[in-house]
Design brief:
Length: 274
Amino acid sequence: SKEDGRGRWTLYDPSMDDEREMRNQLELDLRAAIERQEIGVAYQPFVRSNNGRIAGVEALARWTREGYGPVSPDVFIPVAESTGLIDLLGMCVLRSACFELRQWPELTLSVNVSPGQFRDPAFVGRVEEILQAADIEPRRLTLELTETYFIQNPARARQTLEMLRGMGIRVALDDFGAGFSSVGYLRQFGFDRVKIDKTLVQDITENQRSAELLHATVALARALDMPVTAEGVETGAQADALRLAGCELLQGYLFGRPSPAEEITRIVRQSYDS
Ligand code: C2E
Ligand code: CA
Ligand code: CA
Ligand code: CA
Protein backbone atom coordinates (compact mmCIF):
# COMPACT_ATOMS: atom_id res chain seq x y z
CA SER A 1 0.00 0.00 0.00
CA LYS A 2 1.00 3.62 -0.36
CA GLU A 3 -0.35 6.86 0.98
CA ASP A 4 -2.10 9.22 -1.39
CA GLY A 5 -1.86 13.01 -1.09
CA ARG A 6 -4.73 13.32 1.35
CA GLY A 7 -3.23 10.92 3.84
CA ARG A 8 -5.47 7.98 3.05
CA TRP A 9 -4.08 4.56 2.34
CA THR A 10 -4.94 3.05 -0.99
CA LEU A 11 -4.09 -0.28 -2.50
CA TYR A 12 -0.93 -0.10 -4.55
CA ASP A 13 -1.46 -1.68 -7.91
CA PRO A 14 1.83 -2.50 -9.66
CA SER A 15 0.07 -3.10 -12.99
CA MET A 16 -0.74 0.61 -13.06
CA ASP A 17 2.98 1.35 -13.19
CA ASP A 18 3.46 -1.20 -15.96
CA GLU A 19 0.70 0.39 -17.96
CA ARG A 20 2.09 3.88 -17.49
CA GLU A 21 5.54 2.60 -18.42
CA MET A 22 4.22 1.01 -21.62
CA ARG A 23 2.37 4.16 -22.56
CA ASN A 24 5.44 6.31 -21.98
CA GLN A 25 7.49 4.01 -24.17
CA LEU A 26 4.81 4.12 -26.87
CA GLU A 27 4.83 7.91 -26.76
CA LEU A 28 8.64 8.04 -26.97
CA ASP A 29 8.68 5.66 -29.93
CA LEU A 30 5.90 7.60 -31.69
CA ARG A 31 7.73 10.87 -31.19
CA ALA A 32 10.93 9.38 -32.60
CA ALA A 33 9.04 7.91 -35.56
CA ILE A 34 7.50 11.30 -36.38
CA GLU A 35 10.89 13.01 -36.12
CA ARG A 36 12.51 10.41 -38.36
CA GLN A 37 9.59 10.82 -40.80
CA GLU A 38 8.59 7.19 -40.45
CA ILE A 39 4.84 7.82 -40.34
CA GLY A 40 3.44 6.39 -43.55
CA VAL A 41 0.22 7.16 -45.37
CA ALA A 42 -2.22 4.66 -46.87
CA TYR A 43 -4.78 5.81 -49.44
CA GLN A 44 -8.29 4.48 -49.51
CA PRO A 45 -10.35 5.17 -52.64
CA PHE A 46 -13.89 6.49 -52.67
CA VAL A 47 -16.00 6.04 -55.78
CA ARG A 48 -19.01 7.71 -57.37
CA SER A 49 -22.08 5.63 -56.66
CA ASN A 50 -23.55 6.23 -60.13
CA ASN A 51 -20.63 4.89 -62.19
CA GLY A 52 -18.20 3.20 -59.79
CA ARG A 53 -15.32 5.42 -60.85
CA ILE A 54 -12.76 6.53 -58.31
CA ALA A 55 -13.36 10.16 -57.30
CA GLY A 56 -10.70 10.57 -54.67
CA VAL A 57 -8.74 9.10 -51.79
CA GLU A 58 -8.70 9.42 -48.01
CA ALA A 59 -5.27 9.61 -46.42
CA LEU A 60 -4.89 7.34 -43.38
CA ALA A 61 -1.83 7.44 -41.12
CA ARG A 62 0.22 4.26 -40.79
CA TRP A 63 2.94 3.41 -38.30
CA THR A 64 5.12 0.33 -38.13
CA ARG A 65 6.70 0.36 -34.69
CA GLU A 66 10.21 -0.96 -34.58
CA GLY A 67 10.33 -4.31 -32.82
CA TYR A 68 6.52 -4.60 -32.67
CA GLY A 69 5.01 -4.31 -36.15
CA PRO A 70 2.08 -2.21 -37.38
CA VAL A 71 0.19 -0.25 -34.71
CA SER A 72 -3.48 0.62 -35.33
CA PRO A 73 -4.36 4.32 -35.71
CA ASP A 74 -7.07 3.66 -33.13
CA VAL A 75 -4.15 3.16 -30.71
CA PHE A 76 -1.56 5.74 -31.78
CA ILE A 77 -3.86 8.62 -32.83
CA PRO A 78 -5.31 8.95 -29.30
CA VAL A 79 -1.74 8.88 -27.91
CA ALA A 80 -0.75 11.60 -30.37
CA GLU A 81 -3.83 13.61 -29.39
CA SER A 82 -3.23 13.41 -25.65
CA THR A 83 0.47 14.30 -25.93
CA GLY A 84 0.27 17.13 -28.44
CA LEU A 85 2.13 15.11 -31.07
CA ILE A 86 -0.96 15.23 -33.30
CA ASP A 87 -0.06 18.66 -34.71
CA LEU A 88 3.21 17.38 -36.12
CA LEU A 89 1.81 14.01 -37.15
CA GLY A 90 -1.19 15.60 -38.85
CA MET A 91 0.98 17.98 -40.86
CA CYS A 92 3.28 15.11 -41.93
CA VAL A 93 0.27 13.18 -43.25
CA LEU A 94 -1.16 16.27 -44.98
CA ARG A 95 2.16 17.13 -46.61
CA SER A 96 2.86 13.59 -47.85
CA ALA A 97 -0.69 13.23 -49.21
CA CYS A 98 -0.70 16.61 -51.00
CA PHE A 99 2.55 15.81 -52.77
CA GLU A 100 1.29 12.33 -53.64
CA LEU A 101 -1.93 13.86 -55.06
CA ARG A 102 0.06 15.64 -57.77
CA GLN A 103 0.28 12.39 -59.76
CA TRP A 104 -3.54 11.95 -59.75
CA PRO A 105 -5.01 15.10 -61.35
CA GLU A 106 -8.42 13.37 -61.58
CA LEU A 107 -8.76 12.92 -57.83
CA THR A 108 -9.62 14.86 -54.72
CA LEU A 109 -8.02 14.26 -51.31
CA SER A 110 -9.56 13.86 -47.85
CA VAL A 111 -7.46 14.19 -44.71
CA ASN A 112 -8.53 13.58 -41.13
CA VAL A 113 -8.07 16.39 -38.63
CA SER A 114 -8.21 15.99 -34.84
CA PRO A 115 -9.93 18.61 -32.65
CA GLY A 116 -6.55 19.52 -31.12
CA GLN A 117 -5.17 20.50 -34.51
CA PHE A 118 -8.23 22.52 -35.41
CA ARG A 119 -7.93 24.39 -32.11
CA ASP A 120 -4.44 25.67 -32.97
CA PRO A 121 -4.68 29.22 -34.43
CA ALA A 122 -1.70 28.46 -36.70
CA PHE A 123 -3.51 25.53 -38.30
CA VAL A 124 -5.13 27.32 -41.24
CA GLY A 125 -1.88 29.02 -42.24
CA ARG A 126 0.01 25.74 -42.17
CA VAL A 127 -2.54 24.06 -44.39
CA GLU A 128 -2.34 26.96 -46.84
CA GLU A 129 1.46 26.72 -46.89
CA ILE A 130 1.42 23.01 -47.69
CA LEU A 131 -1.14 23.47 -50.49
CA GLN A 132 1.00 26.18 -52.02
CA ALA A 133 4.21 24.17 -51.70
CA ALA A 134 2.57 21.16 -53.37
CA ASP A 135 0.77 23.39 -55.88
CA ILE A 136 -2.62 21.83 -55.12
CA GLU A 137 -5.85 23.75 -55.70
CA PRO A 138 -7.57 24.23 -52.33
CA ARG A 139 -10.89 22.90 -53.65
CA ARG A 140 -9.30 19.49 -54.16
CA LEU A 141 -8.76 19.15 -50.40
CA THR A 142 -11.44 18.09 -47.92
CA LEU A 143 -10.69 18.10 -44.21
CA GLU A 144 -12.63 15.46 -42.26
CA LEU A 145 -13.61 16.52 -38.75
CA THR A 146 -15.72 14.88 -36.07
CA GLU A 147 -18.38 16.71 -34.14
CA THR A 148 -16.43 16.86 -30.85
CA TYR A 149 -14.82 20.23 -31.44
CA PHE A 150 -17.95 21.79 -32.90
CA ILE A 151 -19.85 20.92 -29.76
CA GLN A 152 -17.09 22.00 -27.36
CA ASN A 153 -16.27 25.30 -28.98
CA PRO A 154 -18.88 26.32 -31.55
CA ALA A 155 -17.84 29.96 -31.91
CA ARG A 156 -14.15 29.25 -32.53
CA ALA A 157 -14.95 26.27 -34.71
CA ARG A 158 -17.16 28.37 -36.90
CA GLN A 159 -14.42 30.99 -37.28
CA THR A 160 -11.85 28.43 -38.39
CA LEU A 161 -14.39 26.85 -40.71
CA GLU A 162 -15.09 30.20 -42.34
CA MET A 163 -11.37 30.84 -42.89
CA LEU A 164 -10.89 27.46 -44.54
CA ARG A 165 -13.98 27.99 -46.69
CA GLY A 166 -12.72 31.41 -47.68
CA MET A 167 -9.64 29.71 -49.05
CA GLY A 168 -11.74 27.21 -50.99
CA ILE A 169 -10.99 24.20 -48.79
CA ARG A 170 -13.89 21.82 -48.14
CA VAL A 171 -14.87 20.55 -44.72
CA ALA A 172 -16.72 17.28 -44.10
CA LEU A 173 -18.40 16.09 -40.92
CA ASP A 174 -16.87 12.66 -40.28
CA ASP A 175 -18.37 9.71 -38.37
CA PHE A 176 -21.87 11.11 -38.76
CA GLY A 177 -24.48 8.98 -37.04
CA ALA A 178 -21.97 7.47 -34.61
CA GLY A 179 -22.22 10.25 -32.03
CA PHE A 180 -24.79 12.74 -30.90
CA SER A 181 -24.80 15.12 -33.85
CA SER A 182 -28.08 16.97 -34.02
CA VAL A 183 -29.80 18.65 -36.93
CA GLY A 184 -28.91 21.90 -35.21
CA TYR A 185 -25.17 21.35 -35.65
CA LEU A 186 -25.51 20.37 -39.26
CA ARG A 187 -27.48 23.51 -40.03
CA GLN A 188 -25.37 25.83 -37.96
CA PHE A 189 -22.07 24.90 -39.57
CA GLY A 190 -23.12 24.07 -43.08
CA PHE A 191 -20.53 21.42 -43.81
CA ASP A 192 -19.66 20.78 -47.44
CA ARG A 193 -20.22 17.06 -47.02
CA VAL A 194 -21.42 14.53 -44.49
CA LYS A 195 -19.70 11.21 -44.03
CA ILE A 196 -21.89 8.44 -42.66
CA ASP A 197 -20.06 6.23 -40.18
CA LYS A 198 -19.55 2.56 -40.97
CA THR A 199 -21.49 1.48 -37.88
CA LEU A 200 -24.61 2.88 -39.56
CA VAL A 201 -23.86 1.05 -42.81
CA GLN A 202 -22.99 -2.35 -41.33
CA ASP A 203 -26.31 -4.19 -41.23
CA ILE A 204 -28.57 -2.13 -43.52
CA THR A 205 -29.19 -5.12 -45.76
CA GLU A 206 -30.15 -7.44 -42.90
CA ASN A 207 -32.01 -5.19 -40.55
CA GLN A 208 -35.06 -3.11 -41.50
CA ARG A 209 -34.55 -0.72 -38.58
CA SER A 210 -30.96 0.01 -39.66
CA ALA A 211 -32.10 0.57 -43.23
CA GLU A 212 -34.72 3.08 -42.09
CA LEU A 213 -32.24 4.87 -39.83
CA LEU A 214 -29.80 5.14 -42.71
CA HIS A 215 -32.47 6.49 -45.08
CA ALA A 216 -33.54 9.10 -42.54
CA THR A 217 -29.94 10.18 -41.94
CA VAL A 218 -29.13 10.53 -45.64
CA ALA A 219 -32.40 12.36 -46.29
CA LEU A 220 -31.60 14.77 -43.47
CA ALA A 221 -28.20 15.67 -44.87
CA ARG A 222 -29.58 16.04 -48.36
CA ALA A 223 -32.40 18.26 -47.16
CA LEU A 224 -29.65 20.57 -45.90
CA ASP A 225 -27.92 20.41 -49.30
CA MET A 226 -25.01 18.36 -48.04
CA PRO A 227 -23.80 15.56 -50.30
CA VAL A 228 -23.24 12.27 -48.52
CA THR A 229 -20.38 9.78 -48.45
CA ALA A 230 -20.90 6.35 -46.89
CA GLU A 231 -17.89 4.54 -45.40
CA GLY A 232 -17.42 0.87 -44.56
CA VAL A 233 -19.15 -0.47 -47.69
CA GLU A 234 -18.23 -4.15 -47.90
CA THR A 235 -20.88 -5.80 -50.12
CA GLY A 236 -22.54 -5.11 -53.45
CA ALA A 237 -25.95 -5.22 -51.76
CA GLN A 238 -24.88 -2.45 -49.37
CA ALA A 239 -23.57 -0.39 -52.27
CA ASP A 240 -26.88 -0.72 -54.14
CA ALA A 241 -28.90 0.22 -51.07
CA LEU A 242 -26.69 3.23 -50.37
CA ARG A 243 -26.87 4.47 -53.94
CA LEU A 244 -30.67 4.19 -53.87
CA ALA A 245 -30.76 6.00 -50.53
CA GLY A 246 -28.95 8.92 -52.18
CA CYS A 247 -25.30 8.54 -51.18
CA GLU A 248 -23.17 10.19 -53.82
CA LEU A 249 -19.82 8.70 -52.82
CA LEU A 250 -19.05 5.24 -51.47
CA GLN A 251 -15.97 4.02 -49.63
CA GLY A 252 -15.12 0.61 -48.21
CA TYR A 253 -13.29 -2.67 -48.68
CA LEU A 254 -15.61 -3.48 -51.62
CA PHE A 255 -13.90 -0.74 -53.65
CA GLY A 256 -10.45 -0.89 -52.10
CA ARG A 257 -8.60 -1.15 -48.81
CA PRO A 258 -6.28 1.57 -47.60
CA SER A 259 -3.35 0.98 -49.98
CA PRO A 260 0.03 2.26 -51.08
CA ALA A 261 0.05 4.96 -53.77
CA GLU A 262 0.90 2.50 -56.58
CA GLU A 263 -2.39 0.66 -56.03
CA ILE A 264 -4.31 3.94 -56.36
CA THR A 265 -2.53 4.66 -59.64
CA ARG A 266 -3.68 1.24 -60.88
CA ILE A 267 -7.31 1.95 -59.87
CA VAL A 268 -7.21 5.39 -61.54
CA ARG A 269 -5.98 3.81 -64.80
CA GLN A 270 -8.71 1.20 -64.62
CA SER A 271 -11.35 3.91 -64.03
CA TYR A 272 -10.31 6.48 -66.60
CA ASP A 273 -8.32 4.81 -69.38
CA SER A 274 -10.93 2.34 -70.57
P1 C2E B 1 -12.06 7.08 -39.92
O1 C2E B 1 -11.63 8.45 -40.35
O2 C2E B 1 -13.49 6.89 -39.61
O3 C2E B 1 -11.55 6.09 -41.08
C1 C2E B 1 -12.23 4.91 -41.48
C2 C2E B 1 -11.62 3.68 -40.89
O4 C2E B 1 -12.38 2.54 -41.32
C3 C2E B 1 -10.18 3.39 -41.33
O5 C2E B 1 -9.51 2.73 -40.26
C4 C2E B 1 -10.38 2.44 -42.50
O6 C2E B 1 -9.26 1.62 -42.75
C5 C2E B 1 -11.56 1.63 -42.01
N1 C2E B 1 -12.34 1.06 -43.10
C6 C2E B 1 -12.42 1.51 -44.38
N2 C2E B 1 -13.25 0.75 -45.11
C7 C2E B 1 -13.72 -0.21 -44.29
C8 C2E B 1 -14.64 -1.31 -44.47
O7 C2E B 1 -15.19 -1.55 -45.55
N3 C2E B 1 -14.88 -2.07 -43.38
C9 C2E B 1 -14.30 -1.83 -42.17
N4 C2E B 1 -14.60 -2.65 -41.15
N5 C2E B 1 -13.43 -0.82 -41.96
C10 C2E B 1 -13.15 -0.01 -43.02
P2 C2E B 1 -8.02 3.10 -39.80
O8 C2E B 1 -7.17 3.36 -41.00
O9 C2E B 1 -7.60 2.03 -38.84
O10 C2E B 1 -8.21 4.46 -39.03
C11 C2E B 1 -8.96 4.54 -37.84
C12 C2E B 1 -9.23 5.96 -37.43
O11 C2E B 1 -8.00 6.61 -37.07
C13 C2E B 1 -9.83 6.83 -38.54
O12 C2E B 1 -11.22 6.61 -38.62
C14 C2E B 1 -9.46 8.22 -38.05
O13 C2E B 1 -10.39 8.67 -37.10
C15 C2E B 1 -8.12 7.98 -37.37
N6 C2E B 1 -7.02 8.41 -38.26
C16 C2E B 1 -6.36 7.70 -39.20
N7 C2E B 1 -5.41 8.46 -39.81
C17 C2E B 1 -5.49 9.69 -39.23
C18 C2E B 1 -4.76 10.94 -39.41
O14 C2E B 1 -3.88 11.10 -40.27
N8 C2E B 1 -5.13 11.98 -38.60
C19 C2E B 1 -6.12 11.86 -37.67
N9 C2E B 1 -6.42 12.94 -36.92
N10 C2E B 1 -6.82 10.73 -37.48
C20 C2E B 1 -6.51 9.66 -38.25
CA1 CA C 1 -12.26 9.86 -41.92
CA1 CA D 1 -15.71 6.43 -39.24
CA1 CA E 1 -13.01 8.49 -36.86
